[in-house]
Amino acid sequence: MDEKKGKLTVVGIGPGAMDKLTFEAYRAMEECDVIAGYHVYVDLVRDSFPDKKIVSTAMRREEERCVQALEEAAAGRNVAFICSGDAGVYGLAGLIFEVAQDYPGVEIEVIPGVTAALSGAACLGAPLIHDFALISLSDLMTPWETIEKRLRMAAAGDFAIVLYNPSSHRRKEHLQKACEILLEILPENRVCGTVRNIGREGEETRIYTLGELRNVHVDMFTTVFIGNASTKRIGDKMVTPRGYARERGAGFGEQ
Amino acid sequence: MDEKKGKLTVVGIGPGAMDKLTFEAYRAMEECDVIAGYHVYVDLVRDSFPDKKIVSTAMRREEERCVQALEEAAAGRNVAFICSGDAGVYGLAGLIFEVAQDYPGVEIEVIPGVTAALSGAACLGAPLIHDFALISLSDLMTPWETIEKRLRMAAAGDFAIVLYNPSSHRRKEHLQKACEILLEILPENRVCGTVRNIGREGEETRIYTLGELRNVHVDMFTTVFIGNASTKRIGDKMVTPRGYARERGAGFGEQ
């Protein structure tokens, strides 16, 4: 007879501050037996749930992290597997489903969270609003040529663009290279913004032109926003209108 | 002497269910004097905050809605101006900053929420994971030619794609037209998914190929996901790997 297996809930915890969690994300952690994930994220929440078993792993051990969490669930425990931001955006929700093929009977649920594109946009004002594209500048698992192509296509399509992983210890010049590619298509005066330490101490926003951004050095805690052709600076905010109609009262279905 | 002006907080309330709110979104409504917004969204939350003044407006009165909310704040009241999903994604955060130029002294804050791209992705499994583009198929404020161009660029860049407003009362054939454009570049067997009534009663997910999706009729409560070249179907889930490396253990910075 089969033992009852546990449930694995993949939880996006947002940018880090507890008040940017959703109620269902909190409840998943409150109701689980085990909190699992990358140790930096686990450390953000463990004090709020002192009675939980903690299973944390170091950086770059993503598959091992998924296996450990699924082993816990297969042994009958309910697991909250946490990721920063949203687990479905540069997070581990996908890898969990891949690895979970080896763990039949473990139920998987994904609880969405506020990814840096949204939390960073709120800090800057309203830089996205309309169609936009997310692009990671990390070439660890994506060839740089693919990243370049996406930058060009996003610029050619007049998308607002959010850049994740604009810098790393090993590759400090990625943002500069990305700006140079974008400047093949976009003008120097395109409105851009950066947000550092979203939702954490030392949160900081800056507005630039794309020409200026090319010479800015950012760290790995920074998210970068490139406006579309309509994006403007209003005071210290970066604001994109909802469409191309000039009259403000023209109407547009919200979603 | 100036009277003290109120604060206007633009609040993304997520897909509708109260447990998909963030704690800070809830607190903004709890602490305000006035809850303002489109009547459908106001109705979702008013029972939870029975002592608040309510200022709600009909559809397509977006600028009037912003003016009313800003008038309340200018009169010294703290206002929670609510949008579904995230106010910075096809919402009114941008218009608030534009209209607020006529209301100096009113402080504006934006609180992010879970937009349909994220909440819908969680229902489908993990269809985004890596770089993706959001495109609205509404041509109320964007020329259809611009929408077509963005569809082509997103397909050419191998972005996963999320389609907002895939259908409306007046334009039922937009999704079909979009699929035909995408099929100029993408194969018939590209994995796609739809989510209807995200986070609400009757929530429903479906997985299709792009060839099948062309012949599917969806309503305005549906969000559509088009996979990238790596997206696969795993059981009843739509899953995109994190990159192009085949080995699962290759590592990738999370964000």
Summarize the structure.
2 copies of one chain form a homodimer. Helices cover 28% and strands 24% of the residues of chain A.
Portion in beta strands of chain A: 15-25%
Low-confidence residue ranges of chain A: 246-255
Assign a percent range to the helix content of chain A: 25-40%
Strands of chain A, count: 13
Main structural class of chain A: alpha/beta
Give the SSE order of chain A as H and E letters.
EHEHEHEHEHEEHEHEEHEEE
The assembly state of the depicted protein chains is homodimer
- Neighbour order of strands in the largest sheet of chain A: 3-2-4-1-5
Q: Main sheet of chain A?
A: 5 strands, parallel
Number of helices of chain A: 8
From the N-terminal CA to the C-terminal CA of chain A, the straight-line distance is 48 Å
Tell me, briefly, the overall form of chain A.
Answer: elongated
Report the average pLDDT across residues of chain A. Answer: 92
Describe the structure.
- The structure is a homodimer of 255-residue chains.
- Chain A is an alpha/beta fold and 255 residues long.
- Helices cover 28% and strands 24% of the residues of chain A.
- Chain A has helices at 23-31, 39-45, 62-74, 93-99, 116-124, 144-156, 174-183, 210-213; strands at residues 7-12, 34-38, 53-57, 79-83, 107-111, 125-126, 132-136, 160-164, 191-196, 204-209, 222-226, 232-234, 237-239.
- In chain A, strand 12 (232-234) and strand 13 (237-239) form a beta hairpin.
- The longest helix of chain A is centred in the N-terminal third of the chain and has 13 residues, at 62-74.
- The model of chain A is unreliable at 246-255 (pLDDT under 50).
- The interface between A and B is large, with 97 and 97 residues.
